Request: fold
Amino acid sequence: NSFLLNSKLLPGSFIGYHHGAGKPPNRWPAARFAETAERLARETGMGTLVTSGSFDREPVGEMTAELETPVTLVENRPIRDVAAILRRARLPIERMLEISAKPEIVR
Reply:
């Protein structure tokens, strides 16, 4: 809770992104995460929060480099803290499997 207060993100006011895959074959492409984050930020007006640990530093760097929307980056926090922060997101988006060429947003 104190992290969210310090970041000016209120519970339920942001979408949280967690790559959560250290092995490249298990990762959803960073560009797809970025495309999804941009689209959801534009369509919802919500904040964007991205978590990063030692295993996913590279894809998170690629993702955030492509973003125009402001990002709150949570780095190297214990997984319990990451889980607690993501529980407060309006929508937590975690590692996804490559299923389609474009993410579909269901309303």
